[in-house]
UniProtKB/TrEMBL annotation:
Name of this chain's protein: Uncharacterized protein
Transmembrane segments: 65-85, 97-113, 119-136, 143-169, 181-202, 314-332, 339-360, 366-383
Keywords recorded for this protein, A-Z: Membrane, Transmembrane, Transmembrane helix
Lineage start: Bacteria, Pseudomonadati, Bacteroidota, Cytophagia, Cytophagales
Amino acid sequence: MLPALLLLAAGWGLGCYFETNDDPAIILMLRGTTAATPVGNLHLYFHGFSNLLAALYHTWPALPWYGLVLYGLLYVATVLVFTVLDRLLVRRVPPSKLTALLILFFLTAWLEHGLWFNYVRVPVLLAGAGVLFAAQSPRRRSALVVGVVVFGLSWLIRPSIAVLGLLLAVPGACWLSGRRAGLIIAAAVLWAVGGAVVLNMLRTPQASALRTIDVPKANLNDYQLLRPVPRTATDTLGLQSVRAWMMADSTLVTEALFQRATRFDLDYFLRHTAPAKLRVLLSLVLRDYFPLLLLQAVLWAWVAMSTQVAGRRWFWLVQCGYIGLVLMLGVGLKLPPRLGLPVFDFWALSNLIFVFRAASAAPERRLVAVLAVLAVAAVPYTYKTLHRRTVLQAERQHNQQLRQRLTAALPPTALLVTDVLPATYKSASPFRNPDARPAKMLMLTGWTTADPSQAAWRQQLTGTRNFAAGMRHLAQQGATVRWLLTPHVANLLNQQVQTLPAVNAISLLPDYKLFTQPTDTIWYYQPVVETAK
């Protein structure tokens, strides 16, 4: 009951907000707002789940199924982690102190998962929690079944992140039951490898094409591992489009583009990119995870002073491993909050398991010290959380008002072609469906533009899968199509359309300005068509 009460209390008191606009973009696809029909296959993520969610939205569209399902799985992960901590200390410390530990751990190390939500949090937490739960009771077949099923669900949501959750939980699992933890670890590895083989066998040509640009796109935009080295004007336009997340034009944004016009420059990365990312990482860790850092300092001090504790050498090797993983993710890739807190959560949980499993005597005294550290850290962390809630509430209100302003004059049956509107769902509630207007949108930016469903959507609208030809066709449809764009994207779109043979010269020109923000201006654009003579 305690996990449910804490999650409900936090949600009621602080609210729930999307960390990014990735989740709303997925919801819009599942509901069929940004596709020809509800998208039941997201190819790289939500294997099986997307089919279920699309069917639920089709049958009962008024319910926020995405939030209900994923928060349900977040609740399962919370229950499993609380169960591991409870069984670790039950009958060894007073129930009141154990309850205090669970509450303080939630407030300082877990609350953010529900407050600042992103779907990526679910598979990493679920996978790690399932492995720890099964490892704690290696002789119970039911615990193994729960662990395998939970890991399987997390793998279906996002395979690579589930594997990360498994990796994070391995030290804690081994410290819980030694070699007997190998059974759940082996079962999870078998699932991951077998699942990857099955997915590879069933992968469609469209999914394969999506993967060929998904990885280099992430290396360029997300991880900053690649440097642009365009050789032609077409290369420049292609890279500018990728930078703007305009990846719908499969003739422009191709695997060959990345092979030809980008490269990994190790010297530049070590001299410029890595130091900048390291500074950002250190700032993030110190600002956001200081309660867990203080807890780690206490646990490290105990292990350093406990010279008779078995396994100290392995403990310090594991700490080096966690530090190396944080550096690899933060500097080599990226460590956003949706991954950062889970990493530090399982690092702290593993160390708690080591310390309290080794504390055959006086565990209560050590628990009191842990409670004191978490209680002290909870004071500034509570202030930080309340400040974050204020910022998120203001962002949500601003985005809602902006969205209403942008769509106020939009005809109910009009198709909206835009790069603007989905971004206004950042900080929206996971338990509220997107607005009914516009009923249909064609997205020009975002990672979803590379999804195969978008080519099918354009073909239904225009009769062609060719992006530039489809945009030229839509530009001739008059008031049934509205263009809500930022100037940068409008300029790139004009350049892409101009690559076509000049049967009709078409340009999108600003019609009227709706809003000016610090980074860009939002306009409704009017297509101007000139017949070539």
